[in-house]
Amino acid sequence: MIDTMSRDQRDPSPVVDASAAVAPGVPASTAPASSPPASDSAPSSAATPSPAVSPATASPVRSAPAPRRELRIVGQPGFVLHSYPYKETSLIIDLFSREHGRVALIAKGAKRPHSRLRGVLQTFQPLSVGWSGKSEVRTLTAAEWVGGMLPLEKSGLLCGFYLNELLVRMIAREDPHPHLFDHYVATLNQLAHNEPAPIVLRKFELALLKETGVAAELTVSARSARAVQPDEAYVVDPEHGVREARAGEPAHVPVVAGKTLLDMDRQDYSDNVTQAQSKLLLRFLLAHHLGGAPLSTRQILIDLTQL
Question: How many helices (H) and strands (E) does the chain have?
Fold first, then answer.
C-alpha cells in the first residue's frame, strides 16, 4: 500500500518552470524556495511617483501584494491520471496527489528513449513525486515507483480509466481531497483483486459526490424533514436533495425505493434492486454535475461490460 505521508521541504537546486501562468494560492504549510528562478519572474515596472499629500487628507494606501513564492514539494504520494505530449521530448501529466489534489506537471525529457521516467509515469502506478515552480504548470523534479499494488487487467483496467476521467472532470486543480485519494487507492486495489466492479464503482461514485460537496443527505427528506422510509418511493433532486416521489415524475428522473437510499448510505449493495436503482441514480446525478457532457469511458463500459 502506498505511503500516505508526504514531506514538503526546501530544495536549494534551481528549477526552471514550464509556464509563466500564475498558480492558485500557495498553501501556508508548504515551505518556499530561497529564491525563485529567473524564468518565473514577472517583468517589473518602475513605480510612478505620487504627488505629495498632507497627512490630514491622505487616503489609506494599500501595499502591493507580495510576489508569489515558489513551491518545492518532495515525497508526495500520487497517481498519473492522464498525460499528453509536450513539444518533442516532454510530457504534461495530470497528477492526483494526496495532499495537493490535482496538479499539472511538465515532465521534461520523459519521451526520450533512455529516460527513466518512461516506465514510471504510467497510470494506476503508486508514485512518490516531487515538483517545483509557481506557475499553473509546475516542473516535475522526481518520480519514483512505490509498488505494492497489483496491476489492473481486462475490465478492471477500463474501470480504472473511468475513475480517472471522473476525477479529471469533477475535481478542480489544486483542491486537496486526501480522503478521496485514500478511497481511490482502495478502489484500485479492489478492482485488481477482481471484486464485483458494479459495486466497487457505485461506492466510488458516491464517495466522489460527497467529497466534492454535491451529494445530498440520503436518509432524510429535504422537503418533509422526515426520515426516509424503506417502503416508500423517492427522487433525489441534484440541487435540493431527497424528496418524496409524486405521480407523473419526468421520465429522466429516477424513482428509487427508500431502501435503496438507506442501503447506499450504509454502502450495502448486496440487494439486486439496490444495485440496479443506485446505478441509474448515480448516473443521473453525475450527468447533472458534469453539465450533461458524456463520459467516454462510461460509454465504453456500457458497451463492453454492461455496467
Answer: 6, 9
pLDDT at 130: 97
Give me the CATH topology for the region 1-22+69-149: OB fold (Dihydrolipoamide Acetyltransferase, E2P) (2.40.50)
54: amino acid identity, one letter: S
Cβ–Cβ < 8 Å for 200, 187: yes
Reference 278, options 228, 224, 225, 236; nearest CA is: 236
d(CA 211, CA 179): 8
| Order of all β-strands in the sheet with 233-237 | 241-244, 233-237, 256-257
- In tens, the pLDDT along 161-170 reads 999 999 999 9
Count other C-beta atoms under 10 Å from residue 279's C-beta: 17
Question: What element of type H or E holds 217?
Answer: none
Q: How many CB atoms sit inside 10 A of residue 36's CB?
A: 20
Phi, psi of 284 (to 5 degrees): -65, -45
**pLDDT at residue 296, rounded to an integer:** 84
Q: pLDDT digit string (tens) for 44-54? A: 434 444 444 44
Pick out the chain residues at pLDDT < 70.
1-69, 301-307
pLDDT value at residue 304: 62
CB distance 117 to 109 below 8 Å? yes
Ranges for all domains in the chain classified under CATH 1.20.1440.120: 155-305
Grid cell in block for residue 66: 507580495
Q: Which bin fits 213, alpha (ψ -120 to 50), beta or left (φ > 0)?
A: left
Residue range 155-305 in CATH 1.20.1440.120: yes
Q: For the chain, give every residue range classified as CATH 2.40.50.140.
A: 1-22+69-149
DSSP summary character for residue 232? S
Angle at 168 between CA 165 and CA 172, to 5 degrees: 155
